[in-house]
Specification:
Length: 796
């Protein structure tokens, strides 16, 4: 069956590709190139989107890993800079960014399965038909019943923007609403740390190098978690000496017992969902604050400068009064001094006053709407979810023992309350400022018309006693001169809103006077209320932005406990030396011959399989290593066997060569391996082939020696040097394959669920796409038509 797969496309790429990953649920191929970009293409090679490198990424800090969430809705991208970015499948929108301390070296995304049925119930929603026992231990997500929906931030005023805003669900910004099973993004870095991120978001476990010396100083080549969450396997590259330019490397397989993840799967799913909700709200609040900063205008600073020059004019004439005295005289007696008259008519001007009033009204109104419609709703939602987290932390047997600390969550809840107090304070400042500004500007406008000899409209000239009180209050609070610093001009207390949007770690220049607030006075005088944990603290001299940063830090601190506690619970069971990598001058291997581990559930006991190509020169054999996922004792038992692909493929094909080189290996699906082969002699034509895993049933696995200590002793030999392992030729069991004419050796990516494949060649700049579920018809080198492609997509 030489043409078992249909070639769909053959394309030239503008940039060398470093990583490929098929979407598990859709005919989409993600590719990362050497410039740090990520492309997403359909099967007909239509470009869906392009994701640019993260801001601040320098040249050479490109993509080091790709992993799809099991439902295919989110793509995880790891970078040399240490960032892990989650991107939406529909558009190049960054949903979440996690920053690690060291460069990412590998990543994989594993979905947890139920012990018996292979499925997991929703982590937060309770099936009403479930048993009472199960419903008692599964918390309900009641946020939608008590909280108002978060509305999208204003982006524009077109009909399209409004329609998109109505369809957008802000609460699902992290794309978690469709998740009914716990899934974990496993990330390894260059120094040996392993991170477990629930739903790609919540750090639910971290293995630091100092906590497992088997990986100390080692680069993680691949890391995976079994679907029953019982064990974690990592392939680590150890450096033989401190001199990286001359040192060889030993590659080892290290296994950990992670039974705590399996026993606390439901609790971790709940914490992961809750973290996603909290992270969504914090991101929404940060975007709202950014919109508020954009809505604020600094036009009042211009008036502040003009008043400072007017004050200098008064000082130069040795007049024993201030600017506020000038305006107060005008208010009381209706007569302006020559200096004030010149300031109003020539410096401030009627046109400038109108522009100033309009700008302040628009700016303050927009900020007020953002606080009322967005920021306060988000603050209420944050308090709600932190209150639920506090309740979960008090359930020690379920969540407290996982590291969810009640005191830390209480501190985060308290900080969120302080943020709400500061937001209400800002609303009060805006309300008072707008009333005083409007009264003051209307009065000044009437004065300017009189001074210019123009008729004053009746609606402008009318001033009530309340309006006079607003003007007097404005003169007292806003036109009082600050004591200037040496070498700095005088400053006035005109603008009080912009100070709340200051990101710098500085005290508010004009904090609110708490002595005028009856509740504050009562609370400070009360012995029982002062310092009570039931009341939110008030950061009088902090800006709104500063209190938000304090809240964000407190929330992160409250949710970082489980990562450390769960990480310390992992027990390293041993390491198995696989092979040595010899440094050859400046040559660098673009793809290390280690296949990420995968679990197959074809029987009991369930096993984790690791495939390794240890012979970098001959590429003549594959080592298959297996061990059970449920490790009931401290003794780790690993078994191994050798596989090779002889010259004959299938049972009916004529023998074309004595043996095949194995260029690449990948899991096609749970029952099939995909192989990229090359004939050992003759035409040396590459071959894309599928090998049923039933072929492993005939292999006689032998027990392997596992080291329980580190550093590895010289007596523990590498796999390639051991004897006693049987060699099995599986070439005749390959029933589907295709020769790739006119192509030099490369790498491949396959997707068994969608029955698709891709092979890179030509220095990683040419690509062939295959339908792995159809035989070639006609000329194998000819692309299928657009109509055929449309029919193919519809049938799928």
């Amino acid at each position: 069956m030489q043409c078992s797969f249909r070639q769909l496309k053959e394309k030239s790429l503008s940039t060398e590709v470093t990583h490929m990953q098929w979407n598990p649920k859709m005919d989409l191929l993600a590719l990362a190139n050497t410039q740090g970009e990520v492309w997403l293409h359909r099967l007909n090679w239509q470009r869906v989107w392009t994701l640019s490198p993260p801001a601040g990424a320098s040249e050479g800090q490109g993509v080091t890993g790709l992993a799809w969430r099991p439902d295919g809705q989110v793509l995880g991208v790891g970078y040399q800079s240490g960032q892990v970015v989650l991107c939406d499948v529909e558009k190049a929108e960054v949903l979440h960014t996690s920053t690690l301390a060291h460069p990412v070296s590998c990543m994989t995304w594993q979905e947890a399965e139920d012990k018996h049925s292979g499925v997991t119930a929703s982590p937060v929603h309770v099936d009403q038909s479930s048993s009472p026992a199960s419903s008692q231990t599964t918390p309900q997500d009641t946020a939608a019943e008590f909280l108002p929906r978060l509305t999208p931030l204003p982006k524009g005023y077109s009909a399209t923007d409004k329609a998109n805003s109505e369809e957008e669900v802000v609460e699902d910004n992290k794309r978690l609403s469709s998740q009914t099973r716990l899934n974990i993004l496993v990330v390894g870095d260059e120094v040996g740390s392993i991170y477990l991120l629930a739903y790609g978001l919540f750090s639910m476990g971290q293995l630091a190098p100092e906590e497992h010396p088997q990986a100390k100083g080692g680069r993680l080549l691949s890391v995976t978690l079994s679907s029953d969450l019982q064990c974690l396997s990592a392939v680590v590259q150890h450096q033989a000496s401190a001199d990286t330019s001359q040192s060889d490397h030993t590659v080892c397989l290290t296994t950990y017992n992670t039974a705590l993840l399996a026993t606390r799967k439901q609790e971790l799913a709940t914490l992961g969902m809750k973290y996603g909700q909290v992270a969504t709200i914090l991101g929404y609040m940060e975007n709202t604050l950014r919109s508020m900063s954009e809505a604020w205008e600094d036009i009042l600073l211009e008036m502040d400068n003009k008043l400072a020059k007017f004050a200098e004019t008064i000082d130069s004439k040795d007049l024993d009064w201030q600017v506020s005295d000038e305006f107060l005289q005008l208010l009381m007696w209706g007569k302006a001094s020559p200096e004030l008259q010149s300031f109003l008519l020539n410096t401030l001007t009627e046109k400038g006053l109108k522009k100033l009033g309009l700008s302040i009204d628009n700016s303050y109104s927009n900020i007020e709407k953002l606080v009322l419609n967005h920021l306060q709703r988000a603050g209420q939602a944050l308090l709600f979810h932190l209150s639920e987290l506090k309740g979960l932390s008090l359930w020690y047997d379920k969540y407290g023992m996982l590291g969810l600390n009640t005191q830390a969550v209480q501190e985060a809840w308290s900080c969120a309350g302080s943020f709400m107090l500061k937001a209400n304070e800002l609303l009060q400042v805006i309300d008072n400022s707008m009333k005083n500004f409007k009264a003051f500007f209307r009065w000044v406008y009437a004065v300017m018309l009189r001074l210019a000899g123009e008729q004053v409209p009746s609606e402008v000239s009318k001033m009530s006693q309340k309006d006079l009180a607003f003007v007097a209050e404005f003169l007292q609070e806003n036109l009082t001169e600050e004591t200037p610093s040496p070498g700095r001009p005088k400053r006035f207390n005109l603008e009080k809103v912009g100070q709340y949007l200051n990101k710098k770690d500085e005290d508010l220049p004009f904090p609110q006077d708490l002595s005028k607030i009856p509740w504050e006075t009562f609370m400070q005088s009360s012995t029982y209320l002062k310092g009570s944990e039931l009341l939110f603290p008030h950061h009088q001299k902090k800006s709104l932005y500063q209190v938000f940063n304090i809240t964000k830090t407190a929330v992160e601190r409250a949710l970082e406990g489980p990562a450390a506690v769960i990480g310390r619970s992992f027990n390293c069971l041993g390491s198995l030396p696989l092979y040595s990598m010899v440094k050859r001058g400046d040559s660098q291997h673009k793809r290390l011959p280690v296949l990420p581990m995968s679990q197959f559930s074809g029987g009991e006991p369930r096993h984790v399989f690791t495939l390794v190509i240890p012979d970098q020169d001959t590429l003549s054999r594959i080592l298959v290593i297996r061990h059970p996922t449920q490790l009931h004792s401290e003794l780790l038992v690993m078994e191994g066997a050798w596989l090779k692909v002889g010259g004959q493929l299938g049972e009916q094909e004529a023998k074309r060569c004595s043996s095949h080189k194995i260029l690449d290996v990948s899991y096609y699906d749970e029952g099939t391996l995909a192989l990229l082969l090359q004939e050992g002699e003759g035409e040396c034509c590459p071959v894309l082939a599928l090998l049923p895993l039933m072929a492993l049933d005939d292999c006689g696995f032998a027990v392997l020696e596992v080291s329980q200590t580190f550093p590895l002793t010289a007596t523990v030999a590498s796999i390639g040097d051991r004897v006693g392992l049987c060699m099995y030729d599986v070439g005749h069991q390959i029933t589907q394959y295709r020769y790739l004419e006119n192509a030099d050796p490369g790498v491949m990516a396959v997707g068994g669920e969608r029955k698709v494949g891709a092979v890179l060649y030509g220095h990683q700049r040419r690509l062939r796409l295959f339908d792995m579920n159809a035989e070639e018809e006609g000329d194998s080198d000819e692309d299928i038509s657009d109509n055929d492609m449309q029919d193919l997509n519809e049938t799928r």
